[in-house]
Each structure stands twice: as C-alpha cells, then as structure tokens.
Amino acid sequence: MSDGALFNAVADFIADLQDRICAAVEDVERGVTFGEQIWKRPGGGGGRSRVIQGGSVFEKAGVNTSVVHGTVPTQLAGELPGGGDTFRAAGISLVIHPVSPMVPTVHANFRRIERGGHGWFGGGADLTPNYLYEEDAVHFHRVWRDVCARHPVADYAAWKQWCDDYFYIPHRGEHRGIGGIFFDHVSDAPEEMWAFVQDAGTAFIDAYLPIVRRRADEPWGERERTHQLVRRGRYVEFNLLYDRGTKFGLSSAGNPESILMSLPDTARWIWGYKVEPGSWEERSLDVLRKPRQWVASDGELA
Amino acid sequence: MSDGALFNAVADFIADLQDRICAAVEDVERGVTFGEQIWKRPGGGGGRSRVIQGGSVFEKAGVNTSVVHGTVPTQLAGELPGGGDTFRAAGISLVIHPVSPMVPTVHANFRRIERGGHGWFGGGADLTPNYLYEEDAVHFHRVWRDVCARHPVADYAAWKQWCDDYFYIPHRGEHRGIGGIFFDHVSDAPEEMWAFVQDAGTAFIDAYLPIVRRRADEPWGERERTHQLVRRGRYVEFNLLYDRGTKFGLSSAGNPESILMSLPDTARWIWGYKVEPGSWEERSLDVLRKPRQWVASDGELA
Fold it and tell me: Which residues pair with A47 in a beta bridge?
C-alpha cells in the first residue's frame, strides 16, 4: 500500500471506529446520546468531536477523530521525527469519565502521523480506577495482551511497561492508573502495524464496556464521590503538566475545547485529603504507586 | 546591608507578613481559622503552610511561606540566573478562592532568590474576578500604582504590562484575570527594592480585603456558581500548563501539596459552555481578552 493509500485507509477506519464505539457506549448509557461538533483547523483539515455529558452512566465521555495536515508548527519542529516542513495526522482519541466512582475512567488513542516521507503509528489504552477491582484490571490487560499476541509486530510486555512509564505523575509518585498499553513512533512494518491498529482499535469495546456493565450498579455514596473527585484532580494534573498529546494538540490544532475534552466534568483539590490506612481507597492507591503485572505477558501462560 | 543580612531580613519579614495577612483574612472570614502545616525540605530548609478550607467567606485560602536552600536542582540549572551550584530562596505565596462567585480570587507572591553571589527580588499580585465590578479593578490597581509611586525603583506601568503578559492563557486567548503587577529577576538597587517589597507586601491587605468586604453579601445562585467553577477550570489550566512558579516548585521543593494549594477546591470543564451575548459574564470575559488600563500610571493623574 502506498503511504497515501495507507493514510486514507487510517482516516476511513477511525471514522468508522468512532461510529462503532459511540454506538457501543450509547447502548450502555441509555440516558443520553452523543452530541456532535464538526470543526475545521485553520491550517488544514479538521475533526469530528462527539461528547456525552450528564448521562446516567457517563458523566462526560468524548470520542474525537481528527484528520489534519499542513505546515509543521514551529513549536513542534524539533519534536516530530522525520524531516520536511509538512505533516499530516489522522487519529481517534477518547476519554470516558463515568458517573459512578466504582466505574473506572478510560482513555484510548490510535493515530498515524507522517512528516515528509516518514510515517509512524502510535496509540494505546489505559484504565484509571478509583476503586480497584482486580478482576477488572486483569480483564483489561488480558484483552490487550491477547490483541498483541495475534500480531508479531506488537509487544505486550514492552508496551505495558511503556504505558506505566508514560502515565506517571512524578510529583505525586503515582501512576495515573493501572496502565494498559502505549506505543509511539513505530515506523517499521507499516502493513503489519496497520493490521494491529485495526484489531486494537476494535478491541477497545471489549476491553472497557464489560467493566462498565458489571460495576455500574455497585453502591456508592458521598465518601466514594469525594474520593473520585480528588482522583480526577490527579487526572487533570497529569494531563496538563505532563501529557505530550495535550501539549501537541494545544500547539498544533485549532480546537482547544476538543483537546481538553479529556478533562473530567468536575475535579477537586482538598488540602490534607488522606485515605484511611487499610481502606479500599488505600489499596487502590497502592497499585498506582507500584504497578503490577496483571497478566502473564505470554498468552499461553495466562 | 550584606547579602546574608538582607536574606535573613526577608525571611523574618515574610514570617511576620504571613501572620498579619492571616489575621486580616480571619477577621473577614469569622467562620473558620487557618490550619497550619510545617514542612521540611529534604535538600535544606522548609516552610509553613496555612490553609483555610470550607469557610463561610473563603472556600480555600492558602498563605504559605518557605525559606529553602541547597544545591540547585538539575532541572533548574539553566533557568536560574547567576552562577554556582547553590541557591537559597525566601518567599511568601498566597492564593485565596472565596465561596461567592461575586468575590474575586487573588494571588500574591513576594520572594528573594540568591544563586552564588547573585540575588534578586520577584513578586506581584493579580486579581481574578468571575464577575467584573469595575470599581474593584480600579481599587486593586490603584493600590499597586500608589505603592510603586512611593518607590522610584518600582515601575507600575511596566510591571502592570508584565503582569498582563505573564498571566496569559494562549490556547484560550484570555488573560487569567484583570492583572495587577508582576516583576522578576530585579537585581539592581537591592536596598531600595527591599523597601519596596516590604511596602508592597503590606499593601496586599488593603488591595484585596476591602473588595471581599464589599462583595461578600452580593446575591448569587446556580448560574453564577457554574460560571465560577468553569472560570476556576481556566485558573487550573494556567497554573498547570504555563505557570513558571508551579513548575519551579514541583521540580525544586519537597512539598507538592503546598505548591498545588494554589488550585481551587473545585473546578469544572463543561463541554460547550458558553456565556450569553451581552451578559455580565460576557462583559467580564471581554476584559480578560483585551486588558484595560484601570488607572493612570502616573499617580498625579488619577
């Protein structure tokens, strides 16, 4: 496949994947449906943002696609691999913040970027529970482990580690969540990577929505809500202080609202907030401080 | 005065100023009093954090002092002027987020930093209203203009502009508030600057608390609260994405809680939030997009 054909195929795929993910989310939500905003980027291209807000299951969920092209923004000239003054990028990015503190937040992103004659894939998915259900963490990781196992070009063990390393909040000594996979700048074997990205993008639905279904009716109260809002504060800290995608988006694109859609509806910073020793909250924090191996990296051992 | 005597005098002054500001804030608050946390910095020095949370007038108010010294952190080696591997810093930093959306948030900071034989003063104060009362903006600026007028070493016009330039959120095309004064790396005329800093630190009380007293009983409801929480989201965006002090603190100090005390108790990000054309909210946003000259720079013209 030529670079141009591959890029167009990615653009078509993410539009279709956005439809499928939104339909699957609405099927769980039932209360409200996605609103849509189409936006144009002044420098070339644009995007389609879809957002649920104030749902019965999802407090705020954004599933965005964008296909942009143009001159490499000055701030990014040194950061984007490849040479040349022009670039194009096609990607899907989603963040889902549920109403219930017992249902984890999730993020996923798959993208192809090309600069001059050099192109690469990047992406991944990671889960951020406020209250740890170990079987959910295992389920989430098992889906990604199994997708990787189907594609020799993918490396679950390395990409799980990359995810833990990337989603880290140094000033807190905490990871953002319990991880998943993360990969970037993968330029080798584009045909094989393209097959992997399609498989992984589709797998998101099975990785996340079964967890929502099984936790949506767990009981919770004010204590759990407060803990959730404080944890959402940490999510905001990571995204604004450390996330390269957010910085990339704010310096390259025309739509800050769409990039900052990753932020939760509400976040809190409570001075002196502490979890009780031995509590569920503390056990949930422990795995953010010391990431675990949730599944064997080799599928046959699981 | 020797460098050492000056530094010690600054350290004594900020401890006393913290007491005076906290007493003045408690006098308006009446509901709750400041809690205190003393912390040590592993690399040398420490601080005294004082926080009000959940008050009747102040939702979250932090008035912190720190006096730290030690080896220049690697991340800051290129950013701190002067040479040498050691530094010391003494400063007071405060952020006050009131309960009422009609009462503005305020920030102020005064500090002396020395690296090797080179020392400088920095600081300033700026106001962030959700609902603009022009006379409050004029009052705030007039206090700073008048303090500057008493000290030939100070330059209100330049420092007002510096404040507007510094507290800017480029991806929103908005300034964080209606400004005030900001100055940094002022190494000339240390004795004169020291006299100015003492005058300015003390002036904070007159610059802010009269505004709180006159707006604390203004009526407000859900609409104003929502607008306030969205504006607090912008405050968080500035502090985490762009504020050098926050980055400096997170890379140099031992106490992230104390640095992030500047964040509001609660912030919201509402997809598609818009103010009504011609509304008070819109008029208040206008002055964040186009900073105004609130008082004549020359005191005699006011």
Answer: A39, A66
Active centre residues of B (catalytic): 107
The answer to whether the CB atoms of B266 and A263 lie below 8 A apart is no
pLDDT value for B301: 46
| Contact between residue B164 and residue B179 where contact means Cβ atoms under 8 Å apart | yes
B270 contacts in chain A (CB < 8 Å): 53, 265
Per annotation, catalytic residue among A107, A141, A151, A175 = A107
Q: Which residue of B has its CA nearest to A258?
A: B271
* Predicted confidence (pLDDT) at residue B23 exceeds the cutoff of 80: yes
Q: How many Cβ pairs within 8 Å bridge chains A and B?
A: 77
Name the burial class of residue A191, with classes exposed (0-12), middle (13-18) and buried (19+) by CB atoms within 10 angstroms of its CB: exposed
Find the CB nearest A271 among B60, B171, B172: B60
Give the one of A62, A257, A266 whose C-beta lies nearest to B268's C-beta.
Answer: A266
Nearest CA in chain A to B254: A171
ipTM greater than 0.85, yes or no?
yes
Which of B241, B263, B271 is the best substitution to test chain A (most A C-beta atoms within 10 A)?
A: B271
Per residue in A220-235, pLDDT tens? 999 999 999 999 999 9
Which of B62, B229, B271 lies closest to A51 in CB terms?
B271
Chosen for mutation from B59, B171, B244 (greatest number of chain A CBs closer than 10 Å) is B171
Strand order, beta sheet including B179-186: B35-40, B45-53, B58-71, B86-98, B105-115, B118-128, B179-186
Tokens of B93: 């930093």
Tokens of A129: 């529970």
Q: How far apart are CA B259 and CA B182, in angstroms?
A: 19
Q: What was the pLDDT predicted at A302?
A: 44
What is the mean pLDDT of the segment spanning A161-185? Answer: 97
Q: pLDDT grade, residue B48 (50/70/90)? A: very high
CB contact at 8 A, A33 and A56: no
Q: Among B237, B260, B272, select the one facing A269 at the smallest CB separation.
A: B260
Residues B180-238 have pLDDT tens digits of 999 999 999 999 999 999 999 999 999 999 999 999 999 999 999 999 999 999 999 99
Instruction: Please list every residue in chain B whose beta carbon sits closer than 8 Å to the beta carbon of residue A63.
Output: none
Record the pTM.
0.95
Which of A35-49, A166-180, A275-289, B100-114 is predicted least confidently? A35-49
Which chain A residues contact residue B54 at CB under 8 A? none
Q: What is the average pLDDT value for chain A, to the nearest integer? A: 94
Find where tokens 């990577």 sit.
A193
Residue A156 predicted with pLDDT over 80: yes
Mean pLDDT of chain B: 94
DSSP strands (E only) in chain A = 35-40, 45-53, 58-71, 86-98, 105-115, 118-128, 168-169, 174-175, 179-186, 266-268
**Pairwise CA distance, residues A258 & A36, whole Å:** 11
